[in-house]
């Protein structure tokens, strides 16, 4: 048996080699070795915890997705796709000074991986941007743009928190100085209550890309109250006491209407701001002055003045009372209630009437309003110093002293001694 096996051994080995060659030729004719390019193979980053544990943070600059070239029999190659391969890079030994890691590619399709002759890739490393990890807290502000619908205004604005924590590469974190919540309320008539994503800015108000930054919250709740408005009047009755010989001639308001905002229900219940008299209290006043009243102090908290300033200026106009003398001729003095059969002769040719009033009243004063007259009821014949009755208008002028005039009564009327004596004593 042994002799049979080893008999002509050389020829047998040659025959085997020829058979293998023939098989290889046949296989390459029927199923040749081909090259296939496959794109979209994602590179898995392994052991990145080692970087994070060292206080680093990273961002992939290149090499996270690669294209590979595979050499395999045509029957195998034509069925291959990107999901049949894995690519990975070990990050355990990286640092800011060593920022590239080699890429390893393997076939995970078990029934054909032994048929694959070669796997290559033009991109052989993953390049990272490695930086120190930093956490900071930045302030959050609001930026409401646009105007609500006509006759509506923006009320209170609030956000769920006024600071936000950010974590990322120190080189990026150090640029960020603030976060902003922006919202457009153009033509709106309803209040806003929404979650809004903040935008981050550097000190030059440039937007900072935060794609690689971790936020403590990705969005914040924004509340913007939109209120209707209404114009209402202002009423006031200032309490002013002037010094002697002065008069308050009036007062004026810097404005007599304000626009207020509130709810529809609250606006229906108000038509004016009625300021109490103690809103302005002045005593012993001798000159004009301006008084400032803060209207907000006289409005309920449910209302807000939106037409401008809340400070109303009330001008109190004070003028001195001037005494001026007016001459009334005797023919301008009426005689009343003279007894029958008697005649009265006014001996004085005129009387001097002293009137106290502001200069404006004096400038247009008509003496006819004094209506000067004497009452001779009960007077008999004789000479008398009779008081002159004058009309007084306390709202415009007052008389500064009493006025008398000499009257001579003649005639035949008879009267009792008591009547004559009573007349003389007047």
Could you give a short description of this structure?
By secondary structure, this protein is mainly beta.
Q: How would you describe the overall organization of this protein?
A:
It is a single chain. This protein has helices at 2-6, 9-30, 48-53, 74-77, 170-173, 264-267, 359-363, 417-424; strands at 33-46, 56-62, 65-73, 85-90, 100-107, 118-121, 125-145, 152-159, 163-169, 178-184, 192-196, 199-201, 214-215, 220-236, 239-242, 246-253, 257-261, 272-275, 281-285, 289-294, 304-305, 311-320, 322-329, 334-336, 342-346, 350-357, 373-375, 382-387, 397-399, 404-411. The strands form seven sheets. Strands 1, 2, 3, 4, 5, 6, 7, 9, 10, 12 and 13 form an eleven-stranded mixed beta sheet that branches. Strands 8, 11, 14, 17, 18 and 21 form a six-stranded mixed beta sheet that branches. It has eight helices and 30 strands. The N and C termini lie far apart (184 Å). It has five domains: 1-30; 35-123, RNA Polymerase Alpha Subunit, Chain A, domain 2 (Beta Complex), CATH 2.170.120.30; 133-227, RNA Polymerase Alpha Subunit, Chain A, domain 2 (Beta Complex); 237-320, YbbR-like domain (RNA Polymerase Alpha Subunit, Chain A, domain 2); 322-424, RNA Polymerase Alpha Subunit, Chain A, domain 2. With 426 residues, it is mostly beta strands. It is 14% helix and 48% strand. The mean pLDDT is 89. The chain is rod-shaped and about 200 Å long.
